[in-house]
Design goal:
elongated; Serine Threonine Protein Phosphatase 5, Tetratricopeptide repeat; mainly alpha
Amino acid sequence: MPQTNTTPRPDALAGIAYCWSRCAQHAEAIFEYDVAEKAGFKTAALYNDRAFSRICRNDLDAAGADLDAALLIDPGSGAAYHNRAFLALLRWQRTNDARFAEAGWADATRAIDLGPVSCDVYFDAACLAGAAKRPDDALRLPFARPSRRVRIRP
């Protein structure tokens, strides 16, 4: 009987990890992302998605490293900028260090510029604008980039 290769492809492992993450099983997701990465699957999406799971597990330093790796691979990833902005917001909330608020504000506005936009990215940007003592910027956010407004269906 011929031998068959039963090792899943690395992209399939990353897909399994994403499914674990969607089920809020972040420890399992991180494990599968690690296996996929060791198998050679090193994409911006993998690093961004693993960073989200790490944020959910409160591993903020590792999440930051993953987001930096994602943005090195794909500097146009609005999702990675949004996750990095959210990470900065969490760090600011824990330390009250204005540097996190300023860096997060820059990442949030970059995420909005790049898209895709969501209510979450605008909410995080507004929180970061307030934390960075930029209330006027927070008020102008929805109007400054009309092509990036979130469309709500009636």
